[in-house]
Amino acid sequence: MGLVVHRAGTGWINALMPPVVTGTIVALIGLNLAPAAWGNFKVEPSSATITLGVILVVSVFFRGILGRLSILVGVVVGYLVTWLGGNVMGWSTFGSLDFKTVDEAKWFGFPEFTTPHFSWSLLGLFVPVVLVLIAENVGHVKSVAAMTGKDLDPLTGRALFADGVATTLAGIGGGSGTTTYAENIGVMAATRVYSTAAYWVAAAAALVLSLSPSSAC
Fold it and tell me: Which of 65, 105, 174, 206 could staple 213 via S-S, CB 3.0–4.6 A?
């Protein structure tokens, strides 16, 4: 589908999936994920509230590098508050971390790979999902275009193609499907950092951590 859109242009896909459609789908996906966030919030509401509050305050009242790092600042402050309250797993209040699990884990190792298998019975269930992901991807591209003030419609086909290739590569190793996550676009909106270099760094860091079992501890 990415190749088709890239070659034929986006006029027809914009007609089939106007902003009112793609925007609604992106919003519904976010609303469906909200219960998961709320469930995590209720585990430690005081720390979660402080984390959220710090992110909002830094984002609104600070400019420059600090304002762009609002989410990181919120995570650090929230972690410290949780640690001081003795609610970080493995810590005690003003205590020390138990490194036993970390010491037992290897510093370098490969993830567990699972070979995929084809199932005709599940194919019909997943084909409609592909249409939803196409609409989601198109909506995300338009969202980034609105934030940056650039016409990104010519890149829609490349975005769909990259999404498909990434999902295929992940599936070969038994991983989950991938998509252009709205959470990342939300971070872009909050930090006003639109450089793709940040994603190159994040991808490299994720690959390094995936090869270190001790980091999972």
Answer: 105
Distances in whole angstroms, Cα of residue 5 to Cα of each of 155, 164, 165 = 9, 13, 15
Cα-Cα-Cα-Cα dihedral sign, residues 49, 72, 188, 204: negative
Give CA 36 to chain center in angstroms. 14
23 within 8 A of 139, measured Cβ to Cβ = yes
| Greatest C-alpha distance within the chain | 62
Residue with tokens 């509050």: 53
One digit per residue, the tens of pLDDT, for the chain of length 217 reads 888 888 888 777 778 778 788 788 878 877 888 888 888 888 888 889 999 999 999 988 888 888 888 888 999 999 888 888 776 655 444 445 555 666 677 788 777 777 777 778 877 787 787 888 888 888 888 888 888 888 888 888 999 999 889 888 888 877 777 878 877 888 888 778 888 888 899 889 988 888 877 665 5
Q: How far is CA 147 from CA 19, 36, 176, 185, 194, in A?
A: 15, 27, 29, 9, 9
Give the global pTM.
0.69
**Euclidean distance between CA atoms 50 and 180, whole angstroms:** 29
Dist. CA 80–CA 47, nearest whole Å: 9
133 class by beta-carbon count within 10 Å (0-12 exposed, 13-18 middle, 19+ buried): buried
